[in-house]
Specification:
The chain is of the alpha/beta class. It has helices at residues 37-49, 97-106, 121-124, 141-150, 157-163, 179-187, 189-201, 213-216, 218-227, 230-235, 243-251, 254-262, 276-288, 330-337, 422-437, 462-477, 493-510, and strands at 30-33, 55-58, 70-74, 80-84, 113-117, 126-129, 134-136, 266-271, 292-295, 300-305, 310-314, 317-321, 323-326, 349-359, 370-372, 386-392, 402-409, 445-456, 481-483. A seven-stranded mixed beta sheet has the order 7-6-15-16-17-14-18. Helix 2 (97-106) packs across helix 12 (254-262). The longest helix is centred in the C-terminal third of the chain and has 18 residues, at 493-510. The structure holds the ligand C=Cc1c2[nH]c(c1C)Cc1[nH]c(c(CCC(=O)O)c1C)Cc1[nH]c(c(C)c1CCC(=O)O)Cc1[nH]c(c(C)c1C=C)C2. The ligand C=Cc1c2[nH]c(c1C)Cc1[nH]c(c(CCC(=O)O)c1C)Cc1[nH]c(c(C)c1CCC(=O)O)Cc1[nH]c(c(C)c1C=C)C2 binds next to helix 7, strand 15, strand 16 and helix 17.
């Protein structure tokens, strides 16, 4: 199963800039902090690359997988309905999905895949609720022209796009900017608040006025910098792959590239049995590896370095390792590292309230992926601060009906300390589907999950913060402590897997890493080019 060759020597030709000045130390024992998808992926690849090195995963909860969780509820009739309470789909179209596909084929999960073609209504029909109704977004270039004239949410957008190439390019002293300010400067206010604000609800559950264009849409920022215009930048194709992306393409197995070719025309992936299948397979695989130990219900409380060993303090005691990879949320790691520039503590997160509902009547919503609600919708039309609603597919094993997942809160609840109870959340969801979709029927099943601090926010200055964190980690830990996870370089499952793989590889090959080696380098990510 493992076509990735193990590493049995410290001599590698990897380029790590300032890291090259540090003495290399071959990992002899590695701790992974956090058993979410990033921690599991890092452990998975380390156990392949360094098969004789002991690896210990620390997870504070009894379950692995973090926010990835599939649940099954039973109707009074005895039939089961499956819900996802967190991320549910994986995107095979991005360059970084190569690592996800590498994991999938190594775990022999290809036969469990469920694929949704890009042309299927469930993938291509996306809606924005604005100001009091669903606006179906165009799914093709041809559909765009009539949509400019008929959709309230696209009012003024055509003129804004035509004018964009003639707008002044940004001044050289702007180092970063909020997404809203960037779009206002390039396209005017309407697109920024209505369209882009909604899209950021559907990715970061975040505030378009606070998120950083440079970290959230790096390719748009780059296009303006290089071509003076986003629209002109899009007209230029065929840019060469950047170094981190080339390393990605070169680093994954041929089978993953083959699988990627088979995924042409696929919009999203999931698994029969839900997204948790990925977690369970990784867990099973790691449990079978003699050198891997998984410590559940063991909370990490501190990390130290005495210039010889890394020390991990947990709720159960203290252990020594040669190297550590932290996949804990940046703020938690920051609270016990207290680095001089304190960059870790400045990466905030938002809380999202997820309500899953099942109604026994089918087709209560149009065919599609779901809808998003921008901040510009009047309060009276979105009193409970819904961010968006997913129209979940009914599985072949399930009775006919309508399945919805509503997501509330996010940045709207930044200053809240008290969140709705289960009963209040259920009521909020009922009132919202009534107001937005005209659904009056009582749901047969309702499930509420408060995902506390689940999505990191790449706010203004995020990239500078990452530079500072990299410097602090090198100064303090000599490349023995590296970071991975959603806090840094991409919040989706695919990004978490890509960067955990990259960090594990850097640590295994060079014996020193921060996980932030390529900060500042262009990468395709989910916001950029899609090529293999
Ligand atoms: C309403 C809230 C949310 C919805 N999804 C997420 C939230 C917070 C989380 C999320 N969605 C995307 C990502 C990026 C990584 C990935 O897994 O691909 C994350 C963390 C993907 C995404 N979802 C939407 C867009 C435009 C994107 C970017 C990639 C793409 O174009 O596919 C739109 C969207 N998200 C939600 C809905 C209801 C929706 C559109 C109708 C839910």
């Amino acid at each position: 199963m493992n076509s990735l060759p193990p590493i049995n020597s410290t001599t590698t030709n990897i380029t790590l800039n300032s890291m090259d000045l540090l003495p290399s130390s071959t990992p002899s024992s590695i701790a992974i902090l956090g058993g979410g998808i990033s921690g599991l992926t890092a452990a998975f690849y380390l156990s392949i690359l360094l098969p004789s090195v002991p690896i210990t995963i620390y997870e504070s909860s009894p379950h692995l997988g973090g926010f990835l969780s599939t649940i099954t509820l039973t109707l009074p009739s005895g039939e089961d309905i499956q819900f996802e309470t967190g991320p549910r789909t994986l995107r095979p179209g991005t360059l970084e999905s190569l690592v996800l596909l590498d994991v999938i084929q190594r775990l022999e999960l290809t036969s469990s895949l469920i694929t949704t073609p890009s042309k299927a209504p469930e993938a291509k029909n996306r809606f924005i609720f604005y100001p009091d109704r669903l606006n179906k977004l165009p799914s093709s270039l041809w559909g765009l022209i009539p949509a400019f004239f008929s959709l309230p949410v696209l009012k003024g957008a055509l003129v804004a796009i035509l004018k964009e190439p003639f707008r002044k390019r940004r001044s050289l002293d702007i180092e970063d900017e909020s997404v809203a300010s960037f779009f206002r400067r390039r396209f005017g206010g309407g697109i920024a608040t209505n369209l882009v604000g909604a899209v950021l609800h559907g990715i970061f559950a975040g505030d378009v006025e606070r998120l950083s264009i440079k970290s959230v849409f790096p390719s748009l920022w780059r296009k303006e910098g290089q071509r003076g215009s986003v629209v002109r930048g899009f007209m230029r194709c065929g840019e060469p792959l950047t170094t981190p992306d080339q390393e990605l393409v070169d680093g994954v197995g041929e089978e993953a590239k083959e699988l990627k070719k088979r995924m042409k025309g696929v919009s999203v992936l999931s698994f029969k049995g839900g997204i948790e299948v990925l977690v369970k397979s990784l867990e099973r695989e790691l449990e079978e590896r003699e050198m891997v130990t998984i410590k559940r219900r063991e909370e990490v409380r501190g990390v130290g370095y005495d210039f010889v060993h890394m020390k991990v303090t947990t709720s159960q005691g203290e252990e020594q390792y040669s190297h550590v990879i932290s996949t804990l949320p940046a703020r938690i790691l920051g609270s016990f590292l207290q680095l001089p520039n304190d960059g870790l503590s400045q990466i905030p997160t938002v809380t999202v309230l997820v309500v899953n509902m099942y109604f026994s009547t089918p087709d209560l919503v149009p065919k599609g992926f779901g809808y998003l609600v921008p901040t510009s919708v009047p309060f009276s039309n979105n009193p409970h601060q819904l961010l968006g609603c997913i129209f979940d597919p009914i599985l072949p094993s399930e009775p006919t009906g309508t399945k919805l997942t509503l997501m509330f809160g996010g940045h709207y609840w930044d200053t809240r300390t008290k969140f709705p109870t289960e009963a209040e959340a259920g009521q909020m969801a009922r009132e919202t589907v009534n107001l937005h979709l005209g659904i009056l029927e009582e749901p047969s099943l309702v499930h509420v999950t408060l995902q506390r601090e689940c999505i990191p926010q790449y706010t203004l200055g995020h990239e500078q913060r990452l530079h500072a964190i990299r410097g602090d980690l090198l100064d303090r830990f000599d490349g023995r402590l590296a970071v991975a996870g959603a806090s840094y370089r991409g919040i989706g499952v695919g990004s978490c897997i890509r960067w955990a793989w990259a960090t594990a590889r850097a640590m295994a090959r060079a014996g020193k890493a921060t996980g932030l080696e390529t900060v500042g380098c262009d990468t395709a990510g989910w916001g950029g080019a899609v090529r293999v």
